[in-house]
Amino acid sequence: MKNLFRSPATEESKRPLPSIIEVNVNPKEYWEIVGELGDGAFGKVEKAVSKSDRSLYAAAKAIEVQEGEQLEDFLVEIEILTSCKHTNIVNLYACYFCENKLHMMLEFCGGGAVDAIMIELEKPLTEKQIAYIARYTCEAITFLHDNNVIHRDLKAGNILLTSDAVVKLADFGVSAKLKDRNEKRDTFIGTPYWMAPEVMMCETFKDQPYDTRSDIWSFGITLIEMAQMEPPHSNVSPMRVLIKVQKSAPPTLSNPASWSIFFADFLSQCLVKNPMERRTAKQLLSHPFIANATDRHPVLALLAEVNADIEEEVVIDDDRASCDESCADSEDQGLVTVCSTKLTCEAVDLIDRTRQNSLATVAGVAGSQQPHGPLRPGGP
């Protein structure tokens, strides 16, 4: 279940369509769908390949504009992706509006989302992996803030990796583009577990707006998520966490002895309840925890481990099919003795059941913390 709230576009939001949107053009003229990647907040996300360049792949997101909604409701994300071109921000290749559907062709990241990697491997990241991902996520955040953009939904699920371990910040569906550095926002928006205290306050007090530093709190929570597989307070409901964060001291690592003092200090500079005392993204780039974390090999090893895990699942499935065929042949021939193939088949079945139960446990834990989707009431 996801907590997604939208309101129709306000008069203020109505603006000319960005030039990147091709109206009344079917994306199938230029792209071929070659597979499914998963489900997004507004529908399926599919893998597509360019018909003019077969080496160019995209994540195709189709959003059906419902009756009563305006196309302008979705323009902020497009405008941000169009104007904020950076190595560590997912690229928008093309955009089409056809038959009441908005089609976005986004950069395909073969490594997947960081939270999905942890769930697949059933373990958190190492400190070197966290530092590397944090370094380049911080580069992306710095660029956004320099361009007066608040992401507003930072979490491991919105940090993607390419197959060669390039970090990409994604999902600007609830982001805000400020007019200048002095502008603030008072919209209660984001995902509760990662939400900064000052953003939570906006649910009740509209006279205490927030700025780009709210992303820094979410960034710190995201790093704890990478270290522990879940954000702090994930054992309580989303609405209760809003109260808990306000009343509690800033969260820390549950087992600090397992991590370096640099990591702990970095988190302490992100997770400051008073936003004016919080470090900026640019200041954090010089922190010892991430300043020299440029070696991608730990993350390449992580991706290799994920691929090996997936290949193992495929091999087990293939072995199961082979065993089933062999056992069927034995039964067809009227053999009474239990053959070694039958024993192998049972072993494969046991391994497979064990893996399924283990994965189901992880999926159950993740599912129990839902909604992990952003809260979206109306407002800019």
From TrEMBL:
Q: Which GO terms fall under molecular function for this chain's record? A: ATP binding; protein serine/threonine kinase activity
Q: Does the keyword Nucleotide-binding apply?
A: yes
Which SMART domains does the annotation name?
S_TKc
Domain of life, per lineage: Eukaryota
One Pfam family for this entry, by name? Pkinase
The Protein kinase domain covers 31-290
Keywords assigned by UniProt, alphabetized? ATP-binding, Kinase, Nucleotide-binding, Serine/threonine-protein kinase, Transferase
Residues that, per the record, bind ATP: 61
In which family does this protein belong, per the annotation? Belongs to the protein kinase superfamily.
UniProt name for this protein: Protein kinase domain-containing protein
Q: Which gene encodes it?
A: Acey_s0692.g1576
